[in-house]
Design brief:
Chain lengths: ~325, ~325
């Protein structure tokens, strides 16, 4: 959208018809602002950079220099330890992936049809349902009752479902999906398909869904991020004797305890029995493993985020 | 006649289909949002469960009504006034900073000529938003660790004494505010950037023809056009003024007891009352208070904004 507009503007400028300035900065001001943002970006990135560097620093250089941005010696030792530690870490990585994938997919499967139903004006009860969706946004039962319901009625404690189900839907995402279905998919297209004898679920599945890839990608991106980063449900619902259910993030939370398990594992497996790895670098390696996938799919998130924002901003 | 019957049948079928499509999500909402709503009762009961009975039986039959007794958590603990002050203090500061700084940044950034540079800045600044609080805690630890942390290294380099950061409460207000801003800055900035790009360009063009400079454009076009977005975010934030980001106040200070006085907020209290003291009543009463105050404030703010500028109100 904005690109078209910029194109139009530059076209105008070239024709020298009128001179609508795109930027009101002078050359010097532009340079100053850019310098400012360069510095801000650098400062903002430093903490993440430091974690990366620590994870590659050798124990020796940490002992002499602390967590320095310029360690004397780089090493992959901590990474090797983690990968040698085997089962415990790989299990938690597997858990994170499993929870993220299942939660995101299941959430979409539940939310999309609902959002479609809410977007159709033929659905007589859609107003009531929207109201039904809004109440939890304004008022919630609080931690105690949520915890009690999840553990005593739904019996979710110490299971994967405790980490997946509570985050499955969100009114916000349903509204984004609904707004997109409502405004972006031409009504005439849906009507035509219905006239051709299509049933609502067929129209939804064969007409609306294929046209809604951007918004589905948006919600999927948000949900992936939420699940990948979630540790609070584990804190609440997974007991310390169920380490096999820990996702990566919770391993990090529990590091004090986990670090011993990892080291024990790796000592058991490695030949060098007497070697004790530097605990903090191992933690930082874990942090890097958690951040890395996010940074890889980074640009994609950015686009998804913007779609979400433009669609989400539409008011009732 | 037949046609009418057919149409009605078709319509009924259509409605049934819609219901079927809504069913899974509705079930989820009932189980995970509406069922816990009954739990508000926890705030007004002394929870005395009988082993073997179901939760609802325990709550409604086996537990006694105690009226507002549970709300005595407000007065019983000497820490409470500090906790409430912390919650409000951090929220208000972060609310204001979380609007002013990103709006300022977004306005500055939109006018930069090089679009590749703009994209780069957005990408770097939004990174912290993608990190979990656990990860943020570790990032901070790299700087604040007592022996190896960057800050203490720099301090000792200049002959100053090293500081035990996780033991000294006086620094944590500033640290938590900076971290809170750092994490949300990029995301909020992108929101405002999106809002700015959707402003009608012709407004700027005609202003430029009339000879408006940077500041005129900002004050007469950009800011007034942003008011709906700002108002929306403001109202939503006010609604959660008693809530706080649990991770920021629990995970980032690494749950250190020595600095609890300045880091503990209501959400941390609610969590601790439930998980470490098993004090259902206090925890529930505190949640109830948070929800109610938030809702009331949200409605008041919304009404006020609706009076001033109907376009910007939420509901």
């Amino acid at each position: 959208m904005s690109d078209d507009r910029n194109k139009g503007v530059s076209l105008l400028r070239r024709s020298k018809y009128i001179t609508p300035v795109e930027s009101s900065y002078s050359k010097g001001a532009d340079l100053m602002v850019r310098l400012f943002f360069l510095i801000v970006s650098l400062i903002s990135f430093l903490p993440v950079l430091l974690v990366f560097i620590i994870s590659f620093s050798s124990e020796k250089s940490i002992l002499s220099q602390g967590y320095s941005f310029f360690p004397k010696e780089f090493t992959l030792e901590s990474y090797k330890i983690l990968f040698r530690s085997g089962s415990y870490l790989i299990r938690s990585l597997f858990n994170s992936v499993l929870i993220t994938a299942t939660g995101t997919l299941l959430g979409l499967i539940i939310m999309c049809p609902f959002a479609y139903a809410l977007s159709r004006k033929e659905f007589k009860f859609r107003k009531a349902f929207v109201f039904f969706l809004m109440i939890p946004m304004l008022f919630s039962g609080g931690l105690v009752s949520t915890y009690m319901v999840n553990t005593q009625i739904l019996h979710l404690k110490n299971s994967y479902w405790a980490l997946i189900l509570p985050g499955l839907c969100s009114t916000w995402y349903i509204m984004i999906l609904r707004n997109y279905f409502k405004t972006t998919i031409p009504d005439s297209l849906i009507e035509a398909s219905l006239l051709d004898g299509g049933r609502q679920h067929q129209v939804f599945f064969y007409v609306v869904l294929p046209l809604s890839k951007p918004v589905i990608a948006t919600v999927a991106a948000f949900q992936t991020l939420n699940y990948w980063n979630s540790w609070y449900p584990s804190l609440l619902y997974i007991d310390s004797n169920h380490t096999e259910l820990y996702p990566l993030q919770y391993v990090l939370v529990n590091m004090e305890r986990s670090i011993n398990t990892i080291i024990r594992d790796s000592q058991y497996l490695s030949a060098a029995q007497d070697y004790v790895p530097p605990a903090i670098t191992v933690r930082m390696v874990l942090v890097v493993i958690v951040i890395l996938p996010i940074m890889v799919v980074f640009p994609f998130f950015q686009k998804a985020l913007k779609t979400g924002m433009t669609v989400g901003a539409i008011k009732e | 006649m037949n046609k009418k019957k057919y149409r009605r049948k078709k319509q009924a079928r259509e409605q049934a289909e819609f219901f079927l499509m809504s069913l899974p999500a509705t079930v989820w909402y009932i189980l995970f949002c509406y069922l816990p709503l009954f739990g508000i009762v926890f705030a007004f009961k002394k929870f005395t469960p009988v082993p073997g009975d179901g939760l609802f039986e325990n709550l409604f039959v086996n537990s006694k009504w105690v009226g507002l007794d549970n709300f005595s958590f407000l007065t019983i603990s000497s820490e409470m006034s500090g906790i409430i002050f912390n919650t409000l203090f951090y929220n208000i500061v972060l609310l204001i900073a979380g609007i002013v700084i990103p709006v300022f940044f977004a306005i500055l950034l939109t006018e930069v000529r090089n679009k590749a540079f703009t994209g780069f800045v957005q990408m770097v600044l939004i990174l912290p938003y993608y990190l979990s609080w656990v990860v943020v805690g570790y990032c901070l630890y790299g700087f604040l660790a007592t022996d190896e942390g960057q800050f203490n290294r720099v301090l000792t380099l200049f002959g100053q004494e090293a500081i035990k950061w996780y033991q000294e409460p006086e620094y944590w207000r500033l640290i938590l505010i900076l971290i809170g801003i750092w994490k949300s800055l990029g995301y909020s900035m992108v929101i405002y950037l999106c809002a700015i790009t959707s402003i009608d360009r012709t407004l700027y063009e005609s202003a430029a023809i009339d000879g408006a400079g940077f500041f005129e454009r900002v004050f007469y076009i950009t800011l007034p056009q942003l008011r709906t977005t700002i108002a929306l975010i403001f109202i939503m934030q006010i609604g959660s003024i008693m809530n706080s980001d649990f991770g920021l106040f629990y995970q980032v200070p690494m749950d250190s007891d020595a600095i609890q006085g300045v880091t503990q907020t209501l959400d941390v209290y609610v969590y601790k009352a439930l998980m470490t003291q098993a004090n259902f009543g206090f925890s529930a009463a505190s949640s109830f208070l948070q929800s109610t105050v938030g809702l009331v404030l949200l409605l008041i703010t919304n009404t006020v904004i609706n009076k001033i500028d109907p376009e910007s109100s939420l509901i």
